[in-house]
Amino acid sequence: MNLDRILKRLPLSILAVMDLLHCITKAPRLLILTELLSVVSILAQQLVDISPKKGMVFPTSLFFIVLANSGERKSTVDKYLMKAIYEFAKNMYEAYKREYEEFKIGAELWEIKKNAIITALRKMSAQGSTEFSELDEKFKDHMRSKPMEPQSKRMLINDVSTAALKKMLIGHEVSLALMSDEAGSIFNGDLLKDSALFCSLWSNQPLIIDRVNNASSKIEGARLTMSLMIQPELFNAFNERNGETMRSSGFFSRVFFCQPESEIGKRYEYGLVTQHNMMPLDDFYATVHRLLALGEERVTRGDKRDVLTLSPDAEWLWLEKYNQIEAAMAKGQWLEEYTEFGSKFMEQATRLAAVLHVISHAQKIEPVVEKETMKTAIQLTELYFEHAMNLFKSSASFTLPDRRGAEVLLKWLYDNFNGMPIKKSTIRRCGPYSLRNQKGLAEAINILLAEEHIICFKKKQSISVILSYRKHPFLSNGLENPMVFKDISGPYGEPYYGSNISRFYSGRGGISLQNNTAVPSIEDLIDPDELGKQFVF
User: Fold this and answer.
1) 3-state helix vs strand vs coil in the chain, percent to 5
2) Cα-flanking dihedrals φ and ψ of residue 5, to 5°?
3) DSSP class per residue in 307-320
4) CA 20 to 30 Å from 421, out of 89, 167, 454, 518?
5) In sequence order, what are the residues at sequence separation of 6 or more whose Cβ sits closer than 8 angstroms to the Cβ of residue 459?
6) What's the pLDDT tens digit per position in 232-290?
7) Cβ of 121: how many Cβ atoms within 10 Å?
């Protein structure tokens, strides 16, 4: 999945912030984007949930783990993007300290009055009096008026024990963020070992916390965003010790992983940033402050979170993608070794769509998420999914060992495709040198078919390749992808699905191509906009 093409789909306000920070910090764009999304997740989780279809509601909290070496400007990016959150959190904590001081004074007075009533009751009892009714009621009323300790208004945590985290989460709809730009100590500690806690928080499952003194507390409605940046070798050490447990418990499948390509050695300075063009970042800070304040107001009023829904087109796209992923997890398919990640794919994409929607409509959060936002979220999820698969790649997977060949082929096709199908033999003869062997090219084609980047046709023994209009509506020259076909039995032959059934075709309408004796009609499998406006059946 090409990051640059996804970035073009993001809201202009987000792109402006990313471009500015890239110019200032020279950090990898994916690192900047990931930290930015984690910030927006903190805003969104307090305001909205999202329902992709009837009877299904998801929180909008996101978990991120970013693998980046020392010197990739992780701390610098964090400092810029988290600035408004740090300021808001500081103000919240100052307000909490004032409330706590008032509480201590009130609690002291309450205790004095309690002792006075008890003293009066004892005195009357010593005198042999039996008329306690007035003091009894006074004592009961007083006990009911005991001051409540104010709930901690802490937003951010970066190094905390499991017990302390649970204590922070107890209360009314607590919203926290576990953020660290150097998370080595967190991965080396015990916090993440309680994967069940994080899985329950991500899934909005209530938790009962039992105490030694038989008292119990409940965590319900809490939200937690997580963004941990760590050096790859430290994460690899953690994965060797705990990876099997983290995967089997479902924790890793709830995380967006990314390992951005390093910018070190290419970070030239041109002195282009001035105070004048810091406006995108200033506007972002103002938006963060306003949305955080809205979230606090909602909690204070006791209002429920708004529930976003999908437009009919977005819901159709959601269902279509859900079926594709489900088919890809079948035995022998490309996600067979990654079913735990596949099972969470659509929920991850849905949460991401909500986060993008919130920042896109920050002035007034509309209740409906449109198709284009859902499409962008799906593509971003695919990008993070790809990083996770490469990180946890299995020797049994047929796609991952040849991922580099697929990237090489896709770049070559994007640079050379002019709207007319390219024969496989032409690619072998004129394409990238590394793909001029039959096996390597076939496997690269299988992967690109599975990832919906290309569509293929076969006539006799000749295979032709075209770029999918869905993924590549515009060519490298900036013109629209102009695929022109007069009918499905035209000069380029019948649809070809690769030697491994692609996730794109096997997911359509629940069709099982492996069990079909006849090849399905392309008209049944592809909607008209799949091949472009000029496609004619």
Assistant:
1) 55, 15, 35
2) -70, -35
3) EEEE-HHHHHHHHH
4) 518
5) 491, 492, 493, 494
6) 999 999 999 999 999 999 999 999 999 999 888 888 777 666 665 788 999 999 999 99
7) 16
User: Do the bridges between strand 422-423 and strand 255-258 make them parallel or antiparallel, or are there none, so unpaired?
Assistant: unpaired
229: which strand partners? Answer: 66
How many beta carbons lie within 10 A of that of residue 144, not counting itself?
A: 7
Which tokens sit at 308?
């976003």
The verdict on pTM exceeding 0.70 is: yes
Q: Which pLDDT belongs to residue 214?
A: 54
Sequence-distant (6+) residues with CB within 8 A of 96 are: 150, 152, 153, 154
Report the mean per-residue pLDDT for the chain. 84
For 205, counting Cβ atoms within 10 Å of its Cβ (0-12 exposed, 13-18 middle, 19+ buried), the class is exposed
CB 45 within 8 A of CB 61: yes
Task: Output the CA torsion 151→155→158→160 (10° steps).
Answer: 10
Give the integer Cα–Cα distance in Å for 438 and 443: 9
Instruction: Please identify which residue in the block is written with the tokens 């204590």.
Output: 167
Rg (CA), the chain: 28
The values of phi and psi at residue 387, to 5°, are -65, -40
